[in-house]
């Protein structure tokens, strides 16, 4: 959920409702989005993004945990003398879309982990995992989750598949925060990051993510026809069953 679009108290209410209706299975992911979206699509002012996120969490986290909120921030504020009504006493996990050093530290010290995009195994191992794990350790918090999300495509025509990915996902490589991650990985775009090819090649890619330090993997399933999509899903199901 982009934090610019919804007051943290309203998001807390929605999240607790979803948590109750999913019997405690919700993971609430939040993120800043990107400056072009904030300014050009929503016509809002992009300023002090780190302060923005800190203020957001100062309201969101106690609201989720049934606490009163007395926070007067630069961006987000709330004065509540009593906790808001709660459909469940079990707050959802909260994870932050964190890529840069400051956001990774916030994620490690204040949330349950990070959900990634445009991040490959090398970047997880050398940049993401060391920073978020150190921040959590410094705050005496549990080891955070690192959720890595990458397109997966089982196919006999990897060149065509990569060309398609390069075309439809080209915009991500132009956003500064993602560009920085792809540069760490040493690649141009998502066509180079994606796990494309035989069943074994896709399995090997997922294994590299785990070895790099990611705790979870969410695939973006791709395919040019139903057979490729089914083959990709079958590889993912087998990987999940194997743990």
Write the layout of secondary structure elements.
Blueprint: H1 8-21, E1 27-30, H2 35-41, H3 49-64, E2 69-72, E3 77-80, E4 93-96, H4 101-110, E5 113-115, H5 121-138, E6 145-154, H6 158-168, H7 176-185, H8 190-193, E7 195-197, H9 199-212, E8 216-221, H10 226-242
Parallel strand pairs: 1-4, 5-6, 6-7, 6-8
Antiparallel strand pairs: 2-3
Can you describe what's shown?
- This protein is an alpha/beta fold and 243 residues long.
- 50% of the residues lie in helices and 16% in strands.
- The chain is built from ten helices and eight strands.
- The strands form three sheets. Strands 5, 6, 7 and 8 form a four-stranded parallel beta sheet that branches. It has a two-stranded parallel ribbon with strand order 1-4. It has a two-stranded antiparallel sheet with strand order 2-3.
- α5 links the parallel β5 and β6.
- α1 crosses α3 and α9 crosses α10.
- The longest helix has 18 residues.
- The radius of gyration is 19 Å and the shape is globular.
Distance between the termini: 28 Å
Tell me the fraction of residues in β-strands, as a range: 15-25%
Provide mean pLDDT, rounded: 95
Q: What is the number of beta strands?
A: 8
Global geometry: globular
Question: In DSSP terms, counting alpha (H) and pi (I) runs of 4 or more, how many helices?
Answer: 10
What percent of residues adopt helix (DSSP H or I)? 40-55%
Instruction: Please identify the oligomeric state.
Output: single chain
- Show unreliable segments: none
- Along the chain, the helix and strand elements come as HEHHEEEHEHEHHHEHEH
Which sheet architecture does the biggest sheet show? Answer: 4 strands, parallel
Structural class: alpha/beta
Query: What would you report as the Rg, rounded to the nearest angstrom?
Result: 19 Å
């Amino acid at each position: 959920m982009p934090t610019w679009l919804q007051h943290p108290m309203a998001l807390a209410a929605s999240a607790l409702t979803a948590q109750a209706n999913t019997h405690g299975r919700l993971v609430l992911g939040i993120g800043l989005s990107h400056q072009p979206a904030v300014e050009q699509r929503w016509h809002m002012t992009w300023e002090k993004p780190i302060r923005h996120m800190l203020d957001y969490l100062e309201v969101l986290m106690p609201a989720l945990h049934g606490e009163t909120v007395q926070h007067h921030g630069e961006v987000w504020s709330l004065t509540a003398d009593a906790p808001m009504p709660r459909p469940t006493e079990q707050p959802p996990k909260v994870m932050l879309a964190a890529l840069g050093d400051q956001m990774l530290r916030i994620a490690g010290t204040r949330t349950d982990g990070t959900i990634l995009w445009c991040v490959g195994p090398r970047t997880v191992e050398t940049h993401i995992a060391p920073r978020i794990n150190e921040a959590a350790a410094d705050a005496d918090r549990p080891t955070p989750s690192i959720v890595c999300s990458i397109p997966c495509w089982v196919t006999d025509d990897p060149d065509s598949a990569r060309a398609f990915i390069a075309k439809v996902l080209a915009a991500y490589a132009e956003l500064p925060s993602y560009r920085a991650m792809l540069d760490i990985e040493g690649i141009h775009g998502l066509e180079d990051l994606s796990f494309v090819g035989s069943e074994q090649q896709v399995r090997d890619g997922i294994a590299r993510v785990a070895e790099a330090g990611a705790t979870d993997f969410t695939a973006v399933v791709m395919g040019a026809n139903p057979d490729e999509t089914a083959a990709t899903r079958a590889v993912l199901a087998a990987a999940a069953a194997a743990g």
